[in-house]
Structure prediction request, 254 residues.
Amino acid sequence: MMTSILNKKKLEYVAAVMAALILWQILAMIVGNKLLLVTPFVVLKRLVQLIPTTEFWRTIAFSFFRIFLGFLLGAVTGSVFAVFAGRFRIVEILLRPYMAAIKATPVASFIILCLIWLNARSLSIFISFLMVLPIVYTNVLQGIISTDAKLLEMADLFDVGWWRKLRYIYVPQLKPYIISACSVSIGLSWKAGVAAEVIGIPEGSIGERLYEAKIYFSTGDLFAWTLVIIFLSIVFEKLFVRTLKALLDMKEKD
Prediction:
């Protein structure tokens, strides 16, 4: 029964993708201008040309490493801040204006400001970090606040150690909040990280390739690299969330 449901979902997903490609092809034919909108075939042809090249993989490695590092730093820092904020109210109060400012400030403003302080090659790391930090912090803090007080009281009554509290009380409670935060913030980290690269134009980055496509009016390259970004973001999200779920499940079972 479960297998048939999963297969149905996969077929629905494939059908939705095919419908989107057909719509794309129709719109490209209606527009009739390759400078404004190319067909899926043109993008596929360009990807086939790019994928075998060493430069393509170097560019992906450059951007992936920096965006992943920024995401990881934001996730770890946000989680640590949330733990302290959940334990000490004064920390939560002091962090409020900073988190509010980060969430409210446009990404472009951060990028331009950070270009004054940072090297362009490090810009995507810091921007990804900033975008992930408040999302993870808010979700993990909400999970800590929502932890069943009666369970914690019972644990204190029976003198349960902090490690057992973490494993059997906090981990099951925080699991959906952490997974939700990571799932949302991964996509945002890619959007913000690549945007930072487009503005900072560090040599060898995906952002530089997008900027070059704009300068030379290469719409095929623009769409090809955009599809690469979408693919990397989706695959990274799926792999990371699946790994995270497995680690949290192991922690609960230990």
